[in-house]
Design goal:
heterodimer; A: 474 residues; alpha+beta; five-stranded antiparallel β-sheet; 9 helices; disordered C terminus; B: 231 residues; alpha/beta; five-stranded parallel β-sheet; 12 strands; globular; kinase activity (chain A)
């Protein structure tokens, strides 16, 4: 906007300055041409009457005659011949005559002139050598030199008037130009700005952003193209989201459909287990196998349901203010791990926080269970407060650790490193669910290896959460 | 022998669960629909109902409400194939005492049934002798007879609700966390579900004529749990 106005102002000012210079040059040129022509005519007319070498009185009369050629009497003339010189006005010091000009006249037969500023007024000083005009001796200097001073008051006034005129013409023009520039800027810059806003809006995910298309210029074309691109993008994203939603629903539906047959099977596994002891060995093995696999399948379906709940954004936190150390101790006790795990927990009530106890239990049980299965004992569970706002839970084992190439993938669904970790009853979803459970708490979980050997899983859990962030049932 | 009324539409699940429960020593009546279940209620007189929520015809939720209307003290265990929050909460609001998410192992189901039954029978076996009636404003709790009256009118409470009220009012002013209440009332020693507690408190408040905004007796201690106060 400012740039536009500046360019317009500059243009107007330059135009004014240029036209002023042209006009001024024209005015001055014309006046000095007239003067030089008049002077030459006069000199040509009067010089032949001079006798050579002329006497001083004769020179004075010549000077006076030349000066009289201008009726207004503004001419002042100096005539010089060798050492003699005379002026049209007696005692005229003829200050305007500069050494430069005298030199120029001495060295050149042409007429020379110079504008001289003395005090507050400008004068035109013209100098010429008088040459003989006879046929044989054409161009030979007679030794006579004529200098003329003409005050340029009229021209000065004219130029001044010109400046005023240019000023008067340029300033409004300048104003108009700036105004026009601003209008043009609005016309050009506003759509550009709208485009910028729209682009940012799209980038921020508001894909229904569209531009208003005005007129039929390039900007309108651009806006039109933008709208088409945005529409195409919106459509593709909607399609992708639709596909994703369908895939998600499919996973949820499949898991759900699996539940009914599994419910029947799971109900009787205990019956099978009990009776297996009384069956012949082959049948007993088959029965136990079916029973075990049914339990695994039931757990897998549970995990799938849980994952699809996270995917659908339907996992809700039920926050409760609890003692974290007590919760961890209970997790170990409930699974009969208290003797297998070396628990390094703070005293009661040292670390309290608002968490979802069920989800915390899932997280800790999964990490400790993994350490017991895949790592080697001793397995350690540590809890400490990290300042007022968060807690750090660490699960360390003394096994071979996790291969470096596997580390970045351990929280991925169904990720199985085929060599390092043997297939176990885990569904391959446990760590993914762990990560999701930590994430809904606003915390983080990472896996690593200890320098002294063994894997370490570190959970950072915020202890205080914004009350309004998640619904709490009262 | 505890009598279990099982309402489940899927034949395999119904037969599997019935078989497992019979092996545990229960007297099981297995029916296919909610309507049938309601019919058998009078003739079979179950000690506990295991109710599937997704039923053809009359929905499980309606069956649950209808049973509650007939018998406030009958323990109802809800079995749902949907573990989503909304299903569980709605089921609990309809008056179920507890819920299990299918698939469930017979041993787990059995444990839940026993816990529910204990709540119901603990009422009868409480303490033998001196009737002790505590009065809190307009609310009177007969700890021995396990009867609650509000403004002189009896308040019909489900076993979980009664047990929750007895637990809370045993120590007026003391704050109980949801976990403590889960253990005391539902005997969930694992990290049970706070939704059970919340849903039960809501039902209890409604029956005691509590204004929803400012409950007088059972107050929520934000971020911690609940406490009973005498107005």
């Amino acid at each position: 906007m400012v740039a536009f106005a500046l360019v317009a102002a500059l243009t107007a000012a330059t135009t004014g300055a240029l036209s002023f210079r042209e006009a001024r040059t024209g005015v001055l040129q014309q006046s000095q041409d007239t003067v030089i022509k008049q002077l030459r005519t006069q000199v040509d007319r009067l010089a032949p009457q001079l006798s050579f070498p002329p006497a001083e009185a004769e020179l004075r009369r010549f000077a006076g005659d030349v000066a009289r050629a201008e009726p207004s009497g503004s001419w002042r003339v100096l005539v010089g011949y060798e050492d003699l010189s005379a002026t049209s006005r007696p005692g005229d010091p003829f200050e305007e005559l500069t050494p430069d000009l005298r030199e120029a006249v001495d060295s050149s037969p042409a007429t020379v002139f110079q504008r001289v500023n003395t005090g507050d007024h400008t004068s035109l000083v013209v100098g010429m050598s008088v040459t003989f005009s006879g046929d044989e001796n054409r161009g030979i200097a007679s030794g006579l030199q004529v200098f003329l001073t003409v005050p340029q008051a009229t021209e000065q006034r004219y130029v001044d008037a010109l400046v005023t005129a240019v000023e008067r013409a340029t300033v409004p023009a300048l104003g108009v130009a700036v105004l026009l520039a601003l209008l043009a800027a609005r016309g050009v810059l506003r759509p550009v700005r709208a485009l910028r806003h729209a682009t940012r809006s799209i980038a921020e995910g508001r894909l229904d952003t569209r531009l208003a298309v005005n007129g039929s210029d390039e900007l309108a074309d651009l806006s039109h193209t933008f709208n088409e691109t945005a529409a195409a993008l919106e459509e593709s994203v909607a399609e992708l989201r639709g596909m994703e939603a369908r895939a998600r629903r499919f996973a949820a539906d499949v898991s759900h459909e699996l539940r009914t047959p599994l419910a029947a099977m799971a109900a009787v596994t205990d019956v099978l287990d009990e009776d297996a002891a009384r069956l012949d060995p082959d049948t007993a093995t088959a029965v136990r196998l079916i029973s075990e696999e049914t339990v695994k399948l039931a757990r897998l379906v549970d995990d799938l349901m849980e994952i699809s709940r996270f995917d659908a954004g339907a996992a809700v936190l039920h926050l409760d203010e609890i003692d974290l150390a007590e919760s961890l101790r209970r997790t170990l006790a409930d699974r009969a791990w208290a003797d297998l795990v070396d628990a390094d927990l703070p005293p009661p009530d040292a670390v309290r926080g608002r968490v979802d106890p069920r989800r915390l239990d899932v997280v800790v049980a999964n990490l400790v269970g993994n350490a017991l299965r895949h790592g080697a004992r001793p397995v350690r569970l540590r809890l400490r407060a990290d300042g007022e706002r968060s807690a750090v839970i660490e699960v360390l084992d003394s096994g071979p650790g996790i291969p470096e190439d596997v580390l970045p993938h351990v929280f991925e669904r169904f990720y199985k490193s085929d060599t390092a970790r043997t297939r176990t009853e885990g569904s391959g979803l446990g760590l993914a669910i762990t990560a999701e459970n930590v994430r809904v708490h606003g915390g983080s979980v990472r896996a690593g290896n200890r320098p002294e050997g063994g894997a370490v899983f570190t959970v950072e859990l915020p202890l205080r959460r914004d009350e309004s962030a998640h619904g709490e049932h009262r | 022998m505890p009598r279990v009324l099982l309402i489940e539409d899927d034949r395999a699940v119904r037969e599997g669960v019935a078989l497992a429960l019979r092996r545990q020593g229960h007297d099981v009546a297995a029916v296919e629909t909610g309507e049938e279940g309601l019919e058998r209620l009078r003739s079979f007189r179950p000690d506990v109902v295991v109710l599937d929520l997704m039923l053809p015809g009359m929905p499980g939720l309606d069956v649950c409400r209808a049973m509650r209307a007939l018998d406030q003290t009958l323990p109802i265990l809800m079995a749902t194939a949907r573990g989503d929050d909304v299903d569980i909460v709605v089921g609990l609001e309809a008056g179920a005492d507890d819920y299990v998410v299918k698939p469930v192992r017979a041993r787990v189901l059995e444990a839940r049934i026993r816990a529910v039954l204990r709540r119901a029978t603990a009422v009868a076996a409480a303490d033998g002798g001196i009737p002790k009636i505590d009065t809190y404003g307009e609310l009177a709790i007969d700890r021995a007879g396990h009867a609650v009256t509000w403004r002189g009118d009896p308040v019909p409470l489900a076993p979980s609700e009664l047990r929750l009220l007895l637990t809370l009012s045993a120590a007026p002013g003391q704050v109980f966390s949801r976990q403590q209440l889960l253990e005391a009332v539902w005997e969930h020693s694992y990290h049970g579900d706070a939704r059970l507690v919340d849903a039960c408190v809501r039902r209890l408040r409604a029956k005691m004529g509590e204004p929803s905004r400012e409950p007088r007796y059972i107050q929520t201690v934000r971020g911690f749990g609940y406490r009973f106060v005498s107005p």
